[in-house]
Request: fold
Amino acid sequence: MTEEKDKQFGEVLESLKDVPGPVMMAMQKAQEIYGYLPIEVQLRIADYFGVPLATVYGIATFYSQFRLEQPGQIKIAVCLGTACYVKGSGGVIEKFGRMLGVEPGHTTPDGRFTLEATRCIGCCGLAPVLTVNGEVYGKVTEDSVDEIMAKYNNA
Amino acid sequence: MKNINLTVNGVPVTVPEGTRILDAAIKAGFKVPTLCYMKDLCNESSCRVCVVEIKGNRKLMTACSTVVSEGMEVLTNTPKVRASRKITLELMLSNHHKECLSCVRSGNCELQTLANEYGCDAEKYEGAMNSYDVDDATEYLVRDNNKCILCRRCVAACNKVQTVGVIDAGNRGFATRIASPFEKDLGGVPCVACGQCINVCPTGALREKDSIKAVEKLLADPEKTVIVGTAPSVRAALGEEFGYPIGTDTEGRMVAALKAIGFDKVFDVDMAADMTIMEEGTEFISRLNDKNAVLPMITSCSAGWVRFIEFNYPELLPHLSTCKSPQQMFGAIMKTYYAKKIGVAPENIAVVTVMPCIAKKFEKLRDDECAAGAGIPDIDESITTRELARMIKNYGINFNALDPKTEFDNPIGKGSTAGLIFGATGGVMEAALRTVAETVTGETLENIDFKATRGTKGIKEATITLAGKQINICVASGLANARKIMDDIKAGKSKYHFIEIMACPGGCVNGGGQPIVSSEKRNLVDVAKTRAGVLYKKDKKDALRKSHDNPVVNTLYGDYFEKPNSHVAHKTLHTSYVKRNRY
Reply:
């Protein structure tokens, strides 16, 4: 499985050989292939394009869409866009954080849940809104956090 | 090239097209403060303290990056400019751990200096402050991001000049900080301990790991005979810490200060450099005469360089001379030959070195650097030129009043000036050639100045004829240059026989343990070249200019080491290397 991904990524690197400013493109492709950017993959990018690993890592931490941890099986994304935030999504994400024991942007040690803060996902009428593996939950409250967690914990 | 005419504060000045305002202002005789900009290194335009007014421009412009144009009227010191700089500095101070009373950089901190000059109120802006753990995981380097102003000079030194590449800016906005990949501490990344980042840091965010306390403990131990040895380039820079201009030779005062501090013996590591030449020169000749030997041979004096090749080109380690560095040879000689000579057990001898280098703090801990036996390191402690200056101040010694003619202790204190020029890039090569040429030909050279090896150019090469053989030599300093040489060897394209590599640009005179020179001074002085001038000036007028003519060297071989590359010399003065994993 990983070998296949490594091979696929090798082809991506090859295709970017003569492209100007290839590092970030390689990083985006890598994340598509691996789901995140582990140190081995970042090092491969760094060595391939002759840039320091520290620079690749700097880019990876500058842009919030790059992930450094393997994403969990269940991705909970809480919208912190203006409308949702005003309607209390800050409290919702905090509650998820407390229940899962992780900060937004991180994955639980068992690899099951990833908690994420997102920008506006375009359905402000349902604010505050969140998605679980793409499934949309609208008008959520701190109480609905328990219900959602119960549903996925039993699943 | 086209010339551009402009005025700076009303003073007309003509500069080549493409010149930046900063250089035009310097040429016109004005000073513009910089915190991120540093000549030939960093031009990030991130600090905003170099802003100037340009007539007809609504906005202030950064002098470090704005290119001059015809008829431009630049004003570097208007009330608007001064007010802007002051606010910028006060905002920096609002998120700066102001430990100025105890900070190692107090007195030569560029931020502190400017804050004073601009009359800043350090407490003007209250607000959020970052708080970072201090990274002191290594034996040589301390990073304190609480004092970092994000100028990125260290990043340029690490990534551009040295291509070591273990730090860069990460995160964004207020959370931006200089970090190693995956939040590793400096012990977990392939940092080579060159210390060039320290030399360019405007504040106290980077410093060497202080070994002064450990040295004082040795000095206080009545059981120990404490010997100190000084590297060639320390004397060429130490004076700067006491107000002497760059390029002042303070050898005598340095020796006097070390005696005043209380070291039992003060010796010159130049003597061990002479031994390095004997061992390395002999090794080179035997490699040259052996068809199966690995060539080119590369010098191994620079501890940062050795670490660099171990991390980045481990497959090329057989190219490295097996000679220990002069520091390690110095310690090894003290704890074997000299211990026996003075009748003291090696365990009761402590060897301290003063080095222009922080990698030496790492080098002394390497494996295979215990000539007198397991558990007896060749070197006990190594301090930088800066640490020695701090000790001198702390001990209340009036440096200026010390006798400038004070000499190293005898009988084995003295080195030749071939050993002395080790401190500058090309010096090891020149010293080696002096000895190798005479050894191979058996004749005395009339001219022993190998000028092609001199100067601060990053890569120098020459072809010399030795007993009818053409020898291609190369001298590289700065690890970006070293990388080019190594890539050529790796690709099978190298035509050289003998290569000298120093980790620091310009060699040890510009080492990571040397006195720190502000960006303002660096605009006006070529630091490495001026310090190297001290060494070459001395070499020019000294009578003892060849390692193999040094009577100390002859005594050491006569009494103990038999001949260069003998069994006992190998056991004592040579070492081995290891492959290191980068991550």
Q: What stands out?
A: The mean pLDDT of chain A is 93. Chain A touches chain B through 16 residues (CB under 8 Å).
